[in-house]
Amino acid sequence: MEGRVIAAHGRQYVVELADGSRLPCFPRGKKSDVACGDRVDIKQTSDDQGVIEAIQPRTSLLYRSNEIRQKLIAANVDQLVIVVATEPAFSDELIARALVAAESEEIEPLIVLNKCDLADKLPAARQRLAVLADLGYRVLELSALEHAEDLRPYLANQTSVLVGQSGMGKSTLVNALIPEARAATREISQALDSGKHTTTHATLYHLDTDSHLIDSPGLQEFGLGHLDRLEIEQSFPEFRPYLGQCRFRDCHHNREPDCALIAAVDAGKIENSRFSTYHRIVGNQRNS
Questions:
Q1: Do 271 and 239 contact (CB within 8 A), yes or no?
Q2: Choice among 161-170, 224-233, 279-288 with the minimum mean pLDDT
Q3: Pick from 51, 57, 113, 56: nearest CA to 86
Q4: Sign of torsion, CA 112 234 127 138?
Q5: Judging by DSSP bridges, how do beta strands 2-9 and 202-208 pair with one another?
């Protein structure tokens, strides 16, 4: 039997089968590499339980990691929707890290600035995102309480995953776009016998036949320990025209003479704030 993982909670998963029915499943063995959105082969072991036998080839895998472990976020997604808000304050570095992760997997990013009804907070938040908008990243401004529907056209014919810090309004967006999400969450929680909804698991919802949305737990950090320095620098699109032009092949773009990136920063072609973020990411790679 084949199916798609629509909820991942620890080592428990809910798999949606071709007929739309849902079956709680466990992976074989102690280690699990299953993510929400995975297509899997399963074997039904009882009326209400199954075992995941294999993961089918993925088109993409979004995850974060440090030197100790990795945390899978979602598989087979086309679009990463990074939700920030006018308040509480959001982390520029977390956004940059999420963008690097998306670039490395060739997942299209979309930044959503929520709570734009807070007019006094909007200009400062908009200014902080301007550098990303200038680089060509899409930025959508909305208020989840009033205009969540503005996001729907961006989700059409895509499998999208929502990520963001806690408090940015992801759940409000999901519930506005998919009113039945709460019922689906209760059903999933009951299937997993977890008693109540918790935000510690990722859940996939269907917007329509061809459009799907994965809600993921709020996060406060986004480790990139699975990427090396060269992969990270390639994931900054504004760096790409200058890569390979430094005097030294193994240039770290720090204090080396004739560094093409440093020259581009000095010439105003690369934002200094983004260059500083790159160095923080590379420097913090092992303990992020």
A1: no
A2: 279-288
A3: 113
A4: negative
A5: antiparallel
pTM: 0.89
39 contact partners, CB below 8 Å, separation of at least 6: 2, 3, 4, 5, 55, 56, 58, 76
Nearest to 197 by CA among 213, 209, 185: 185
Tokens of 74: 């979602």
Structure tokens at 259: 């560094």
| Three-state SS letters, the chain | CEEEEEEEECCEEEEEECCCCEEEEEECCCCCCCCCCCEEEEEEEECCEEEEEEECCCCCEEEEECCCCEEEEEECCCEEEEEEECCCCCCHHHHHHHHHHHHHCCCEEEEEEECCCCCCCHHHHHHHHHHHHHCCCEEEECCHHHHHHHHHHHHCCCEEEEECCCCCCHHHHHHHHCCCHHHHHHHHHHHCCCCCCCCCCEEEEEEECCEEEEECCCCCCCCECCCCHHHHHHCCHHHHHHCCCCCCCCCCCCCCCCCHHHHHHHCCCCCHHHHHHHHHHHHCHHHC
Residue range 34-70, pLDDT digits in tens: 999 999 999 999 988 999 999 999 999 999 887 777 8
pLDDT tens digits for range 154-180? 999 999 999 998 888 888 899 999 988
CA distance 284 to 224: 9
Q: Cα-flanking dihedrals φ and ψ of residue 23, to 5°?
A: -135, 120
Q: Is the pLDDT of residue 29 over 90?
A: no
Residue-averaged pLDDT of the chain: 90
Residue that wins the pLDDT comparison between 30 and 142: 142
pLDDT for residue 97 is more than 50: yes
Write phi, then psi, for 92 (nearest 5 degrees).
-60, -35
